[in-house]
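In practice, a research group might receive sequence data for several interacting partners and want a quick structural hypothesis before committing to experiments. The following worked case mirrors that situation: the sequences arrive first, and a predicted assembly follows.
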Amino acid sequence: MNNNSNKSRPVFLNLFKIHLPIPGIVSLAHRASGVLLFFSIPFAVYLLDLSIVSPQGFQRVQHVLHQPMVVIALIFILWAFAHHFFAGLRFLMIDADIGVETIRSRQGAWLVIITEIIVLLLIIYGVVR
Amino acid sequence: MSLYVLEGLRPWVIQRVSAVYIILFTLYVVYSLTTAGNIDFETWRGWLFAPLNTTLVGLFVIALLFHAWVGMRDVVLDYVHNIMLRIFVFGVLIGILLGSGLWVFRILLLSVVS
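A structural hypothesis for the assembly, expressed as tokens:
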């Protein structure tokens, strides 16, 4: 579209040097987790198919879900879902004009992080069990 | 002023409405899991193929397709500026989403056939 405006403006995309406030980090992670979840959809559908077709398929899925690499990937995907879920809840509240002020916005962001860490611990416990 | 000023409103609403359903569905699934006890092939299949659950899962798939589409579309619009590349990426994303959705519907239809 507007390639001309891109040429004259400075661009600064060094993620390691950009200092985002905490709501910004939560929002960035919300977007990243969303993309990760998108790409896990076909994998999840495949497991669903395999698990429902036959008892052998069901066992196969259980076997796959206990492989170390898969367990790690599963924890990350469920963590992404937890973050996306709670950060999303916060965004919905902001849509309803709740928690819009700077202080509340930061408190809300920290609340999301604390909640998702608790849920992450529950996920790890549930998956590794 | 033309009505195009409201054109961004529709994806925004779709994303929020689908999000609310997904939240409620997630709570239902977590509840079902915690009250399930031991899950084997029979109980799993029995749960998924119970008419209520089949319907709720089907609605979840539809909500997820819309929700994921709006989300990914926003990301593409932010970072992909070349028009042709954008169209190509949209095509791939829609392909993944519709393909996944149709696959799940096929699975759910097994509840009627088998």
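Before designing any experiment, note the following. Chain A touches chain B at residues 1, 3, 6, 31, 34-35, 37-38, 41-42, 45, 48-49, 51-55, 58-59, 85, 88-89, 92, 95 (CB under 8 Å). The first helix of chain A runs from residue 3 to 8.
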